[in-house]
Amino acid sequence: MSSLLIYLLKSTLCMSVLYLVFRALMRKQTFFQLNRVVLLSIVGLSLIIPFVYLPQTIQPVISFQLPMVYLFNAQNHQFSGEAALTGIQFVDHQLQMIYLSGFFVVLLASFISFLRVIIFFRKSSVLSKNGFQLLIARGDIPAFSIGHYVIISQSDFDTNREAILTHEKAHIRFGHFYDLFFLELVKIIFWFNPVIYLLIKDLKSIHEFQADDSTLKNGIDATKYQLLIIQKCVGHQKFALANSFNHCQIKNRIVMMNKQKTNKGWSWKAAAFIPMLALLLMAFGRTGENVSVENSVNKDFLIQKKVNFQDTTRKTAEKVYSEVEEMPQFPGGMQALMNWIGSNTKYPAEAVTKGIQGKVFVSFVVNSEGVIENAKIERSVDPALDAEAIRVISSMPSWIPAKQKGKPVSASMTIPINFNLK
Q1: Is 123:225 a contact under the CB 8 Å cutoff?
Q2: 3-class DSSP assignment, residue 60
Q3: Is the pTM of this model over 0.85?
């Protein structure tokens, strides 16, 4: 699977787990600002966690499956290979195409929504107010704020301006537009993740709870204000990047306005995210790059191995990466590798006599010098075939080593060799 899809999957899983914790512990509390920060942090941390390197005491070796199977024919002692896409690669390609299609569809939808707002701007007259720009639009549209602009219909301006403008100014003061802009970008990237849509819905509700609370604190009559919300919450279009007065979770908004404030002592619930973050870092963080003290201690060994890569200190000094940007390559490519194996492999006579055949999986390490090390059987067929597979792999010439950030590193390869008597 491509590194992009792996990253998207890891981030999606992180976001889903953290959001479930939020819904279970904090969603119904009146810690509006804290809940807002937690939701934004869930998204931000989910984007970052897959990139975080963690030191590790055990150095794993990443194993790659070559996209080919070697067929050895006992009759003519020749190999044939197929370098076509495997089934896994084909599925990966299709997934990438599906992802990109959805990405561009959601991107287009967001762009159209933005254009609709621009059209309202062009059709509205502008009045300058303290700290924001007021646009009075012709026609019956919902009042909403975006950036430092408030758009309101002429009829609402004439009849309900005080309550509506107080509400929308609260959105501007809290900077809610920037939350929505950030999440809109995330939604475009993670369009396939249902959690991001639920999270955006919850964040918009929190924005309204904050703005409602601020409006009532500024002296607006609660009963008249709630009746106005009920009156306005019907039939109007919404905009992705806008905070609308007509945000129509009527019941939740009125319940939150009348709900007794949650005791501040319960804010400790946010601490529940700390152990969860630690678990997610261990599960989805990058553990390939060792940044331990051992690397400093073995600095002399690292220098020495460049002079003599057969030195036994290599195995302890070598850094191993769990994700490799460039895989090891046989000089001349896959066809050259097939030709080399074909000309250097002998079908064991004992296996031919007994009619033994099958696929032997051999793993080996291509170290940072390109030298083959630690060849071993991953899936056995017969001792004779296993021994021949080990002999051939161990005698291969040096490869072009894997690279990470432009530097050669160790990686493990797995080659399936199919001994076939047909």
Answers
A1: no
A2: coil
A3: no
Burial of 42 (0-12, 13-18, 19+ CB in 10 A): buried
The burial of 111, by beta-carbon neighbours within 10 Å (0-12 exposed, 13-18 middle, 19 or more buried), is given as: exposed
* Other CB atoms within 10 A of residue 152 CB: 25
Which residues fall within 8 angstroms of residue 343, CB to CB, at 6 or more apart? none
Place of tokens 């331990």: 292
Region at 235 (left for phi over 0; alpha for psi -120 to 50; beta for the rest): left
Tell me how far apart the alpha carbons of residues 244 and 180 are, in angstroms, rounded to a whole number: 12
Nearest to 297 by CA among 284, 316, 315: 316
What are the tens digits of pLDDT across the range 131-171?
Answer: 788 888 877 778 888 888 888 888 888 888 899 999 999 99
- Domain edges within the chain: 3-57+89-110+158-282, 63-84+288-321+324-420
C-beta of residue 286 within 8 angstroms of C-beta of residue 323: yes
Q: For residue range 349-364, list pLDDT tens digits in order.
A: 888 888 888 888 898 8
